[in-house]
Design goal:
Number of strands: 6
Largest sheet: 4 strands, parallel
Oligomer: single chain
Number of helices: 8
Helix content: 40-55%
Length: 187
């Protein structure tokens, strides 16, 4: 048995329950003892045997990961949990993102869980009602701008260029390296 697998099993037995995503992949993620292990239950998504598709493409054992079973219905929860944990570790009091839906829902849910203010900048009229409602229900402050997603991201980046030192804020779009690191746990 590999050292990593042994560590994971020891963590599981100590915890008595399924370990959180950040605990399960601790050996592979940029976490340290000061990183808070927050969780909404992300990860643990099933693999489903895709028989018909697999046969059609010559891969009869094809398995598909059902990331829609994450807390906000998206694989983005895997990256967001790490981005928010690191934001907390660094002393942020707020999160900000540009989004057309899934990032907004994930940032709002994890930000609320962590007790952080969340600001979502989205393109006016281009976000699915369900995703907008998820962000609003979690307490995010939603700002609509013109110019599509690019306009929303431009607005967020401009805000981050001149931050308010009294309100430390972290950008949690996929330009955040911790988001990308966390999303690797789907593999």
């Amino acid at each position: 048995m590999s050292d990593v697998l042994r560590q994971l099993r020891q963590q599981q037995s100590r915890a008595g329950a399924r370990p959180r995503l950040l605990q399960r992949f601790e050996a592979f993620l940029p976490v340290d003892p000061a990183t808070p292990f927050i969780s909404l239950g992300e990860g643990f998504t099933p693999l489903v045997h895709a028989r018909t598709l697999g046969r059609a493409i010559g891969c009869p054992m094809l398995q598909l990961k059902v990331e829609g079973q994450n807390p906000t219905g998206s694989f983005k929860d895997r990256g967001m949990v790490l981005a928010v944990a690191k934001a907390m570790q660094e002393g942020s009091r707020a999160l900000i993102c540009a989004s057309t839906g899934n990032t907004a829902a994930s940032a709002a849910a994890y930000g609320a869980h962590a007790g952080l203010e969340v600001i979502v900048v989205l393109p006016r009229g281009q976000v699915a009602a369900g995703k907008l409602l998820q962000a609003q229900a979690a307490g995010a402050r939603v700002v609509a701008v013109e110019g599509g997603f690019d306009g929303a991201l431009r607005a967020v980046r401009e805000l981050m260029e001149d931050p308010d030192p009294r309100q430390p804020m972290t950008l949690v779009n996929s330009v955040n390296p911790f988001r990308i690191e966390g999303q690797k746990t789907a593999a």
